[in-house]
Amino acid sequence: MKKLKKEDIKQEVFDLYDDYAHNKLKRRQFIEKLSVYAVGGITVASLMSFMMPNYEDTLLVDPNSPDLDSDYIFYNSPKGGGEIKGLLSKPKNFDGKLGGIVVVHENRGLNPYIEDTARRAALAGFITLAPDALHPLGGYPGNDDEGRTMQRKRDRHKMLEDFIAAFEYLKNHPNCSGKVGVVGFCFGGWISNMMAVKVPDLAAAVPFYGGQPKENIDKINAPLMLQFAGLDERVNAGWPAYEEALKKHGKAYQAFMYPDVNHGFHNTSTPRYNKEAAELAWDRTMKFFKKHLD
């Protein structure tokens, strides 16, 4: 079997994966459509294997790092799913006050990539909480396919309440300064935008390739940093109207479009990952939070 490299994969395959990852294609349909690109020694099985997440080899932070205090906690989401599990992380042996960041997962629950991202932010000098909106259904099941199926069973506005409750938990944590921001990816990007609308005292929001709110944009108080993938036509289609509304209401925002990268470019676990764009976007995000949360 030919060992695949990213340059072997046509853009159409990434587009198909995006449809599959966002529930527009069932697994069987995804496999059928992939067969068109199984040529020249490339098999459908190798394409599937290459495109699926690989968490084992792609984490950037050791979960047992001696520099981290990182463990699961439970908090209450009275307007959402009730008891919610989340990963709470902060720098080791730090007893002062830190800015807080709610880290919001994609449309598949709290998988290892999002946990890794929350630990990275903690190592950068924040206290972070990464909730699992699948906890009311049993929690992230260990693979993304089942996670997506589970997440479709929950109302997204109830899940939004779970992350708003996470904001309140973090804001009142004894190691938090009271200034709390949010960063989210895909579904989590939509949550980040919506928290900016719904939470008057949110200190900062960084949506990565997230869907945009359609109303009440005048209620946004938090400064925004919006991260977009240049090839992400689906999400980017809503940006012009959102930007027009932000300008109309005089809201503080920065927007970055990373050319020639796919939706999910920050996610280290799949070949959509683009190291250069991801590191630049992350560096900008951490500097933005340091400015608004310190």
What does this entry look like structurally?
- By secondary structure, the protein is α/β, with parallel strands linked by helices.
- The chain folds into two domains: 6-51, no CATH class; 68-293, Rossmann fold, CATH 3.40.50.1820.
- Helices cover 37% and strands 20% of the residues.
- The protein has an eight-stranded mixed β-sheet with strand order 1-2-4-3-5-6-7-8, sandwiched between helices.
- The longest helix is centred in the C-terminal third of the chain and has 19 residues, at 275-293.
- It is globular, with a radius of gyration of 19 Å.
- The model has no long low-confidence stretch (mean pLDDT 96).
Low-confidence stretches: none
CATH topology label of the largest domain:
Rossmann fold
Report the average pLDDT across residues.
96
CATH top-level class of the largest domain:
Alpha Beta
Helix/strand class: alpha/beta
User: What gross morphology would you assign?
Assistant: globular
- Helicity level: 25-40%
Count the DSSP helices.
10
Largest sheet: 8 strands, mixed
- Could you say how many structural domains there are in total? 2
Count of DSSP strands: 8
User: Which oligomeric form is depicted?
Assistant: single chain
Terminal CA distance reads 52 Å
Give the CATH H-level superfamily of the largest domain.
Answer: Alpha/Beta hydrolase fold, catalytic domain
Strand proportion: 15-25%
Strand order of the largest sheet: 1-2-4-3-5-6-7-8
Task: Supply the CATH architecture of the largest domain.
Answer: 3-Layer(aba) Sandwich
Write down the secondary-structure element order.
HHHEEEHEHHEHEEHHEH
What is the gyration radius calculated from CA atoms? 19 Å
